[in-house]
Write a structure and sequence with these properties.
Layout (H helix, E strand, L loop, with lengths): L2 H26 L4 E6 L19 E3 L5 E4 L9 E8 L3 E9 L17 E7 L14 E7 L9 E5 L4 H7 L1 E6 L3 E9 L13 E11 L5 E5 L12 E5 L2
Parallel strand pairs: 1-4, 1-13
Antiparallel strand pairs: 2-4, 3-12, 4-5, 5-10, 6-7, 6-11, 7-8, 9-10, 11-12, 11-13
Bound molecules: calcium ion (CA) (3 copies).
One calcium ion binds next to loops.
Length: 240
């Protein structure tokens, strides 16, 4: 074999080995899980979580999660405690977000460009390819009020019946001295193949967008290395 061919083969081998190692890291990381408990009382969507007794947090932080884009300086720049609950009618989502600069300027399907929480559902927990858009898959965005916007916004992507969910979703937020709190509810009946009473588990992910005043947009993901790939989602278990 000529010398330059050996060099080329070595280079290709190094590239393939590194690429393979990266993919395997996502596959062999311990699976993220969170329990979604049954609400003990009425949950009011008002951006105040005093009605959220005993919900289990899932943390999305620089040390616990994967920074897909941008940079997280420290936990005061961006860190999130995320909560879920359900009752007879609704599934509930809430997040206590530490973000040093709350920036929201967009509306509707563009809210991912602002400070925003994204919830990813694979209700049948049946995805075998990295592609969403099945009847039971949803991407749900929640973005807070701020100086640039008077009320919280929500949006639903990646589902054939996204409009139905958008009509029924409720969202509210409050600003805090460290960032914001956001709270939302969705009627279970409008989410395809979701039934917390008879179902144990769904595929689940959380990603968080952080836009700061320097214009840098950061995106971090709770489970896996690609927020939108349902084969890398964690699991949400329904509990009493
Ligand atoms: Ca509340
Ligand atoms: Ca920030
Ligand atoms: Ca921000």
């Amino acid at each position: 074999m000529k010398k330059q061919n050996i060099l080329l083969l070595s280079l290709v081998t190094v590239v393939l080995v590194n690429y393979g190692a990266d993919l395997n890291a996502a596959e062999t990381a311990p699976e993220k899980t969170v329990n979604c408990g049954k609400a003990k009382g009425k949950i009011t969507i008002d951006g105040d979580l005093k009605d959220w007794a005993k919900a289990e947090p899932a943390y999305v932080t620089k040390s616990d999660s994967y920074v897909e884009k941008g940079k997280v300086k420290d936990d005061s720049d961006l860190s999130v405690a995320f909560y879920t609950l359900y009752d007879e009618e609704n599934i509930y989502f809430a997040a206590v977000v530490t973000d040093d600069e709350v920036v929201t300027r967009q509306k509707d399907g563009a809210i991912w460009q602002d400070d925003c929480i994204e919830i990813w559902l694979d209700n049948a927990d049946d995805s075998t390819t990295p592609i969403m858009f099945a009847d039971d898959d949803y991407q749900i965005g929640l973005s807070p009020q701020s100086g640039g916007r008077r009320s919280a916004e929500s949006y639903v992507w990646h589902n054939p019946d996204a409009d139905l969910v958008m009509k029924e979703i409720k969202v509210s937020s409050t600003l805090t001295d460290k960032g914001y709190i956001i709270e939302a509810s969705i009627p279970i009946k409008v989410l395809y193949e979701l039934d917390p009473k008879s179902q144990k588990v769904i595929g689940f992910n959380i990603s968080v967008c952080d836009l700061d005043k320097d214009g840098v947009w950061t995106h971090i993901t709770w489970s896996g290395k690609l927020h939108s790939d349902p084969t890398q989602f964690g699991k949400l278990y329904f509990a009493e």
